[in-house]
Amino acid sequence: MRFELFIAARYLRAKRRQAVVGVITAISVIGVAAGVASLIIALAITNGMRRDMQDRLLGSTAHVDLMRVAADGIREWRPLLDRLRKIPHVTAAAPGLYGQVLISRGARSGGGLIKGVIPADERTVGDLLQKVTEGSAAALEPQDASAAATHLSDERVGAKREHPIPGGADTPERPVAAQAVPPIVIGKDLAETIGAKVGDTVLVTSPQGELTPLGLVPKYQRCQVVGIFSSGFYQYDSSYAFMRLKDTQRLFSEPDLISVISFKVDDLYSADRIARVIEQEAGKGFQTTNWMEQNRELFRALKLEQMVTFIVLALIVCVAALNILIALTMMVMEKTRDIAVLMSFGVTEMQVRRIFLLQGLLISVIGTVLGLILGYGLSWLGGHYRFPLDAAVYSIDHLPFAPRVWDGVIVGAVSLGVSLLATLYPSGSAAKVLPAEALRYE
């Protein structure tokens, strides 16, 4: 062990003539440990939020969406879909038809975003249909004619309307779908809002109505809830619903029309570049959006939150560094006689400076190591025993933890650096002690 480190360690363990110096030293260690642990936990939470949201978003939505610039949708989409699937780096593509609807059951209703899909294709670009927790999405698969005819005999549309048209008498229901009651898969929170369970029949009302002698009448369709999915992401669980593409086209009176072609790509962070290639291949009149554009503000806010959290919690380490400064300053005052004796034996000013620099560094190292152990330990416990959150407020149902080794390196370096700066003044004061004067007055 080096001479300076040996003396620094002895000074750190020695009994104090002034107990307050020992108390301040202990507070310094605890302060550094608390600051480091807080930073590790906070960074683990922000990293977990970012990772969890990104995974949920990318799992629930496509990487790239292709739409028409005009609002008339995409016609003759099958040849276009086959051609775009062959673009390099595109791993999957699926057609879809979006539409805002009102989904109701009895007196309870909720707004929803219906997406008409081909299930086999939709599963390749998103996993919401694979997160069905009640019932099954298998009913969305195309049925053969015999099965449809059998179901039609049981659930034929043609009954009287349940709700009268304002200002008029009840009229027979218009034949939106002269076939079996279509299946629908809805989100967990949407199901709770309208009080629907698997097997219940809900009324899906489209604002794209038809002009009748009684005025503009919304178009509606009774559907049977065959599945309820839970993604853990409130935005989807509270408003999304899936129907077969043909049923959705029939509801919106849009035969063989889609509104979007969704793509999965092999490189998430090259989605913008691949999107430009898709847009060029599709031709004029098309535009693309990608997951980074759609969620840019969200991830920017998370990044800003991470930086602000780091700066605010780093102040705890700064306060602990001030305690180190105070403790070392008082120790220099207490050890003035010892410093003078050492210097009279030939110890140089630089060696005296190193003694107190190393003493402050030891305090910082002990606190930093304890803080890292505590921070990573609590982060592991938080990830193992999930802390529940209100999904309606935070968009996720539990608090995610994602501690990273690189964060520990940065936090440790910042802690040691700040603490080292705090030792410069007291170590410099110790090096300026004059042995003759110190021994004369001590």
Strand-helix topology:
Elements: H1 3-13, H2 19-60, E1 64-68, E2 74-75, H3 77-84, E3 90-105, E4 108-117, H4 119-125, E5 132-135, H5 145-154, E6 183-187, H6 188-194, E7 201-212, E8 215-229, H7 234-237, E9 240-244, H8 245-251, E10 257-258, E11 260-265, H9 271-282, E12 286-290, H10 291-294, H11 296-334, H12 336-344, H13 349-384, E13 387-388, H14 391-394, E14 398-399, H15 405-422, H16 424-431, H17 435-441
Parallel strand pairs: 4-9, 6-8
Antiparallel strand pairs: 1-11, 1-12, 2-10, 3-4, 3-7, 3-11, 5-8, 6-9, 7-8, 13-14
Helix pairs in contact: 1-13, 2-11, 2-13, 2-15, 11-13, 11-15, 11-16, 12-17, 13-15, 13-16
Rounded to the nearest angstrom, the distance between the terminal CA atoms is 30 Å
Helix content: 40-55%
Beta-strand residue fraction = 15-25%
Number of helical segments with 4 or more residues: 17
Structural class: alpha+beta
What topology, given as strand order, has the largest sheet? 3-4-9-6-8-7
> What profile does the largest beta sheet have?
6 strands, mixed, barrel
| Tally of domains | 2
The number of E-state strands comes to: 14
Identify the overall geometry.
Answer: elongated
What low-confidence regions span 5 or more consecutive residues with pLDDT below 50? Answer: 144-178
Radius of gyration (CA) equals: 34 Å
Family: Belongs to the ABC-4 integral membrane protein family. LolC/E subfamily.
Subcellular location: Cell membrane
Transmembrane segments: 20-45, 307-333, 354-378, 405-425
Biased composition (Basic and acidic residues): 152-164
